[in-house]
Amino acid sequence: MSDASFILDDSAPRVPTAAPGDYFALLKPRVMSLVVFTALAGLLLAPTPPHPFLAFASLLAIAVGAGASGALNMWFDADIDALMTRTRLRPIPAGRLSREEALAFGLVLSVLAVLTLGLVANWLAAALLAFTIFFYVVVYTMWLKRSTPMNIVIGGAAGALPPIVGFAAATGAVDLSSIVLFSIIFVWTPPHFWALALVKREEYGRAGIPMLPNVAGEDRTRLEILAYSLALAPIGVAPYLLGFASPIYGAASLLLGAALVVGAIQVFRLRSGEAARRAAMRLFFFSILYLFLLFMVLVIERLVHLSPLFS
């Protein structure tokens, strides 16, 4: 019997030790906050400003849907979470929650989120949220993650959908602007996660996850990181080029894209040793800053545009 199966054995009597914070941890709050932020950007791109109540309720439903996805992901991945240092203290592998509790929690939140979004906004947005949850849990977590090194590439669509869901909640439709925001996140996801995978290659290997460095090698991964970063830089400028962001956004996206490419070049050039590890971690953390700043500028611009003080 493996260490993971021993840790996760629910057959023996277990004294409940879960605290509210453990259920909150199941929601993956850091991921949930990014989902809400990018969904807000999509919502604010609506030609007609949504009612504040509709906007708040829609974002709350999207946040709960994202949290439900996180809980269901932890339910299914509890065995491999127990094998990795960055995940082994999560509530299930640490023994504070059972898999059954996480499954029930995630399913209930999923239904509540989808129904709420359908009732307060519209059923297109609700259907898109339901598809996002399904794609992340079933397509990515249950299938792609353990079967192909392209897991991050294809599975990244789930994390890229929130701006489309947000726009649909405000308008009942999908348009080019929301698709562009989807494209930014979709292309951003592989270099972001592959930079971390270069550093955590051995852990992914122990857990049996076929991340690109483990399957195709580190040199191929570095090349892919550079290629995706080169593709992402111009896509990041697209909101300005297409006319739904200001020149300030255009300048910021150019500078951020150039910095991202420089970081990817460093990862590509440094092939071994501690310097290579530091370069990969710098790119990983900068990629988070890159996405956050792009969407922050978009959100601030739209809020200023919608404010009566600036109209």
Automatic annotation (TrEMBL):
**Transmembrane residue ranges:** 53-76, 97-117, 123-143, 150-170, 176-199, 225-242, 248-268, 280-300
Q: Which Pfam families does the record cross-reference, listed alphabetically?
A: UbiA
Say if the entry is tagged with keyword Membrane: yes
Principal subcellular localization: membrane
Uppermost EC category: transferase
Q: Which UniProt keywords apply?
A: Cell membrane, Heme biosynthesis, Membrane, Transferase, Transmembrane, Transmembrane helix
Q: Which residues form a coiled coil?
A: none
Instruction: Please give the name of this protein.
Output: Protoheme IX farnesyltransferase
Provide the species name: Methylosinus trichosporium (strain ATCC 35070 / NCIMB 11131 / UNIQEM 75 / OB3b)
Taxonomically, what lineage is the organism? Bacteria, Pseudomonadati, Pseudomonadota, Alphaproteobacteria, Hyphomicrobiales
